[in-house]
Recover the amino acids of this structure.
């Protein structure tokens, strides 16, 4: 079974509403956008060879269901795969 990525659908998977707000930025108290990072050398203090990507969300305007996902996950996965070798 293939599931559409959150960025490809405009229907809430919980209630079926089409009132979905797309690609909303997440922020923290420092007004920065939270990010996910994969470090090529997680043990290093400097020069960790890090790939970072922003977290974004789709939110249903009817029931409030929220999906959080990463922009450009392919680059994170490439870095992750280099760690497994």
């Amino acid at each position: 079974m293939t599931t559409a990525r959150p960025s490809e659908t405009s229907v809430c998977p919980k209630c079926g509403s089409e009132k979905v707000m797309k690609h909303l930025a997440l922020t923290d108290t420092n007004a920065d956008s939270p990010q996910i990072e994969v470090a090529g050398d997680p043990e290093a203090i400097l020069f960790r060879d890090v790939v970072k990507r922003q977290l974004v969300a789709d939110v249903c305007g009817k029931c409030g269901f929220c999906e959080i996902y990463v922009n450009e996950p392919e680059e994170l996965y490439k870095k992750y795969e280099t760690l497994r070798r």
